[in-house]
Hints:
This protein is an all-alpha fold. About 65% of the residues lie in helices and about 0% in strands. The protein is built from 5 helices and no strands.
Amino acid sequence: MIPSNDPIFAAVKEHRAALAALNACRSDATARKAAERISAAERKIAATIPATLRGACAALRYARQASRSFPGETWLGHKLNLQFLASIEQSIAGHRRQSIGPAAAGRGARQRAPSSRRAVSR
């Protein structure tokens, strides 16, 4: 069952189906068509920003599993890998802002250290 609230699950499912279609090819013509379908599915995965942390984790897990299928190679290619990582980063950052609130998210990560000066009483 695919959670309907996160588009990354549909993108992963589409990629899996494209890989299965490639593995089932019996001719060069169908293999070329399947390879085009895989390329489109890879671009979709790379560009899809997961809507949930569960989706971000699932996308990372799928990328790790898929990478094992291509030892010594970059799974999506360098440019798509960067886009994929940026999408995951954007998803996680968005969830971080939601969990700490918009006011806190706008502040810098550093907090000012307490002053070591003593207040002078007059």
